[in-house]
Amino acid sequence: MASMIPYGSNYDRALRRAFDPFGSFFSDPFGTLASVANDGAFKMNVEDAGDAYVVTAELSGVKRDEIDVELNEGRLSISVDRKESEEEKGKNYLHKETSEWSATRGVYLKDAATSGLTARLDGGVLTVNVPKQDEKANVTKVSID
C-alpha cells in the first residue's frame, strides 16, 4: 500500500506549501509563478493570413461540446470546460486521477468580420478562421468653436 503514495518533488513541494506557504515562494518565486500560469491553460496561436486571421488552440482530449468559441466586438474568446463525469461503480480505486479543468483564452482582432467565421476541431487542434473586414474609421474629428 505504501507504494501507492506519490513521493516525489510535487508531493514534497505540496507539503512545504501546506506548512510554510511564504517560505516556498521566497525560495523559488519563479517556479511558483510558472506553475500557476500553466495550470489549466492551453496553447493558442494567432496568425495573420492576409484576408483572415487563423487562430489555433491545442485542446487534446477535449470534446466538441466542451468548447465555446465566441466573437464579441472584435474579441475572440475560446473557453473550455472539461469534466470527466464517468463514474465506474463496483471498482475500488486506491488512486484515481481525473482531469477536470476550465480555461478561457482570448485575443482582440480589431478588424474581424462577424460573418463567415468557421471553426474545426481535428486531432486535438481547434482551428478558427476569422475573415477580416474593411477597417472603419472610428475617429471623429470635432471642430472647436
3D structure, described in words:
With 145 residues, this protein is α+β, with helices and mostly antiparallel strands. It has a domain at 43-85 and 101-131: Immunoglobulin-like (Sandwich). 19% of the residues lie in helices and 32% in strands. It is built from three helices and seven strands; from the N terminus they run αααβββββββ. It has helices at residues 9-19, 21-27, 29-38, and strands at 44-48, 52-58, 67-72, 75-82, 101-108, 118-122, 125-131. The strands form two sheets. A four-stranded antiparallel beta sheet has the order 1-2-7-6, with no helix packed on it. A three-stranded antiparallel beta sheet has the order 3-4-5, with no helix packed on it. β3 (67-72) and β4 form a beta hairpin. α1 crosses α2 and α2 (21-27) packs across α3 (29-38). The longest helix has 11 residues, at 9-19. The termini are far apart. Mean pLDDT is 78; it is low at 1-8 and 30-40.
